[in-house]
Amino acid sequence: MGVERVHDFRSHCINAGFIPLSSNHERPIVAKETAIRGLNDYNCKLTPAHPRPVILLHGTLDTINIWTVFALKLIARGYCVFGITYGRFGIIPILGGLTKIEDSAKEVGAFINKVMRKMKASQIDIVGHSQGTVVARYWMKYLDGAGKVHRSIGVSPGHHGTTQAGFVALAAATRLLTAINPYQHILAPVYPELITNSTFIRKLNTGGDTTPGVIESNIATIYDETVIPWQLSLQDGPNVTNVVLQDLCILSFNGHATMPLSKVVHQFIFNQLDPSTAEPANCWSLL
User: Fold this and answer.
1) Omega of the bond prior to 229 within 30 degrees of 0, cis?
2) N or C: which end of the chain has fewer CB within 10 A?
3) For the chain, give me the number of helices (H) and strands (E)?
4) What is the β-pairing status of strands 149-155 and 18-20?
5) Where are the domains of the chain?
6) Contact 170, 74 (CB under 8 A)
7) What is the pLDDT of residues 184-204, one digit of tens each?
8) Superfamily of domain 2-286
9) CA distances to 133, 155, 247 from 27, in Å
10) Which residue from 66, 143, 71, 140 is spatially nearest to 97, judged by alpha carbons?
11) pLDDT tens profile 129-165
């Protein structure tokens, strides 16, 4: 199972545009970021059917390109879709999600405020993968995001962090960082923050898991190799929908990194964004 999960992450790297610099993977993997047609189009028109901009947020060691397939689907359905690669840092300048979450939240918040201003929108919807959902929650709770979000949808989110085992698995899969390296907090300041019961995670969840006034939903996978145990992706509170991918489709073997590529996950998100047009999210979604 462990080998399958590492392969799962490498498949994500290929799909997201990650290019290994050497065949033995001893040198770092870098990402080639490409434009997503229709993303960040400030000429897009909000409509009664889709009245809010949708903000897509990636996770740790990733870029906005992880959302390429889903973003194109959203745009084709008439949504106005926006997103950036946030949190670039240090020796891995192309990948995002590496700076402290407090800093990433400021960057994301500034971008969202720009989107809202240019689109003349009073609220937005957020779809976040992994750390992306945590960044959004911090912005809503501790910065200037209160009241600006209608829906927040988490895909394998790290609401409660992960055990150190999760970071060991991530480091082993990516070969980018070593979780036991004493300098990991310098190479990637975000890593210590995302460990379960870290000072940051305790602060994030002070007063409860959820954000008042926001409709929140999460989808987790039992094959998560980064958020360990996978139950840490779920929230406890009112106005929350928690779903496990394998309860929707037992044939879905997605791990943490490939969740944004899953057709079943895509249908789940569509249903959350617009319940009035919901269709079953199940194994038929794979066809």
Assistant:
1) yes
2) C
3) 10, 8
4) unpaired
5) 2-286
6) no
7) 555 688 989 999 999 999 999
8) Alpha/Beta hydrolase fold, catalytic domain (3.40.50.1820)
9) 30, 29, 38
10) 66
11) 999 999 999 999 999 999 999 999 999 999 999 997 7
